[in-house]
Every structure is written in structure tokens, then in C-alpha cells.
Amino acid sequence: MQFQEIITKLDKAAKNNSLNQDRGLNPEITGVCAIDKATAGTLSYIEGGKFAAQIATTKADALILPTDENLQSQATSHNIAWIATPQPRLLFAKAITLYY
Questions:
Q1: 3-state secondary structure at position 9
Q2: What architecture is domain 3-99?
Q3: What percent of the chain has pLDDT over 90?
Q4: Per-residue pLDDT for 48 more than 90?
Q5: Cα 45 to Cα 11: distance, rounded to the nearest angstrom
Q6: According to the model, what pLDDT value does residue 50 have?
Q7: DSSP states of 39-79 as a string?
Q8: Domain ranges in the chain?
Q9: Is 90 a residue whose pLDDT tops 90?
Q10: What confidence tens digit (pLDDT) does each residue in 52-72 have?
């Protein structure tokens, strides 16, 4: 499903996202995965700034991030779609239910 569809299904929890800034960054997301195992077409998450380096190395096409503008900018600069939320792990758990 397209990233936009994930945002729509997650509703208010996903209102802060990269599509608000760049409508063209709307990848096809085929599954969810841990960030260190992510491949193209997957959605993953990080929980805080100590994991920021993983943004540059992940193969994920979309990330769920904490509400940290620096992390959001890093993801955008790597052409990674993102959703920002105070509780990334919880939103990732909800995203998993969209696929399984």
C-alpha cells in the first residue's frame, strides 16, 4: 500500500508526516521490519536520537520517528518518508496490524 494510505489508516496518530512537506515522497510500502533488517519497501521505526545514525544506513522507505525535527530532516534528506509521533514504538505496533 502507498505511504499515504498508511497515514490515512493510522488517522490522527499519523497527522505529523513527511507528506505535509513533500507530496511526492509517497513510496509503496509492502511490509514492516526492524530498522536493522529493513529492505526497500518497508516501514520501520526508531525511538530516539541515539539511533539517528541508522537513518543514514537503513534501506527502509519509510520510518516512524519521535517528534524531533532533526531526525525528520535527516530522513527527508535521505528520501525516506516519515511519520513523527511521541510514541514511535506504539505507532509501529499499530502499523504492524495493517499488514498482519
A1: helix
A2: 3-Layer(aba) Sandwich (3.40)
A3: 90
A4: no
A5: 18
A6: 86
A7: -TTEEEE--SGGGTHHHHH---SEEEE-S-HHHHHHHHHTT
A8: 3-99
A9: yes
A10: 999 999 999 999 999 999 999
